[in-house]
Amino acid sequence: MLLSLCAYAVGAARLWRHAGNGRGLSVGNASAFAAGWLALAVALVSPLDALGAQLFSAHMVQHEVLMLLAAPLMVTGRPLAAWAWALPAPWRKRLPASLHRAWLARSWSAITDPLAAWALHALALWLWHVPALFEAALHNEGVHALQHASFLATALLFWWAVLGPDTRARRAGLALLLLFTTMLHTGALGALLALAPTPWYPPYVDSAVALGLDPVQDQQLGGLIMWIPGGVAYLGVGLYVVARLLRRSSRALA
User: The pTM is what?
Assistant: First the structure.
């Protein structure tokens, strides 16, 4: 995390020194990245992380902060541009040629394809909530790190597909479709958790009781956190995409 923040700061400073303040990377982009980085810190290195090992609802807050706050804010911050400028000048000059290598271009195209990014994110969400895998993450720190890394990585790909640099109208329509379908399937998962009459994850039973909470209510609260605030977040970004499209259309007609 510290490396990513330092690289962004160095790259942004070099870019602005070369092109002028706010050019190539706006102050708004830099602010979004900083906010996303802070959200990442809240999710991973604050007391929320320890509480997430004790309460399912806190663990769900942690996941939502990773996927619905940190990831879209960091994508909006355009980190690839800043990190490229953080490289030494000789490396930066060779970067375009390296990125055009066939295998690398094909790999990047495959994982950033909007439908592939959507599918990978959906797969990560549903697989990691299978009780056996979720419990494995609770019992093994390495598996837990893999869980969080897959949530963040697939969320970054998903939000890149939604908020990335391709702003054509047809991509705006596709972005709305991705947002709507993700809101539906994450809402369905949240509803299953919220309406389940018994706990899905036994390791949380004793810890919830020790903290004076009913395990079923703790799970229901976690499901509601995924279902309601998560749905509101997707809806809010969808409205932003529509507003951006309308502004672009009005400028084209002017």
Answer: 0.90
